[in-house]
Amino acid sequence: MNLKSLLLSAALISAAPAVVLAQDAATTTANIGVASSYQFRGVNQNVNNDTQIFGGLDVSGGSFYIGTWLSNVDFGGDANLEVDIYAGYKPKLGPVSLDLGVLAYFYPEDDDLRVFEAKAAGTIANEAGASLTGSVFYSPEAGKDGPSYWYGELAGSVPLSNVKLGPFALSLTGSVGTADYESGFALKDYTNWKVGFSAASENGWVADLFYTDTDISNDKLYEGKTVVQLKRNF
Fold it and tell me: Is 0.70 surpassed by the pTM of this model?
């Protein structure tokens, strides 16, 4: 990663806590969960198909936020832990809720895998709870000496208002995304998609069932997979 990009990302993330805590009413939320597999943008993050255990902590104040998230990983090398740090600003532009931020993905056992991203997203939602989100991510370097890339995604959620499972309200969820890497490197451009159901209760429990796949065949990192996930928000 070039020095200018690295310093800019680090400065934005470092400055975020002071901005958030300066707000009149900072709030803290947390989450913890388990999943049958860790699939990120359609790519398997546990090559041995190990169960994923994850958790995160977020602090928000006004339109600003900062957070961290941790998960086990297995790429077949030394890394077995992912630590994400992110920060951003969520203004409103008419009916669109924007999310402008930076993200850092760290792997303590293998520092060569770290990635910094910039993010711009917009969400439109209606009174019934249906939403549509478009997101664009950019990184100047995917790992040490890796390629720059763009990742774009369109995701939606539609509540099934007439269907409930006990205390859980159901929604139909789906997304499609595409990764575009700088030419001349081994990483592959690809498209991925996900479709499934999400069940959420009023006391913070969320259960997800989805299928995700890519347009790359004969590669276990990109193969299709059905995932079951259970998360609790606090």
Answer: yes
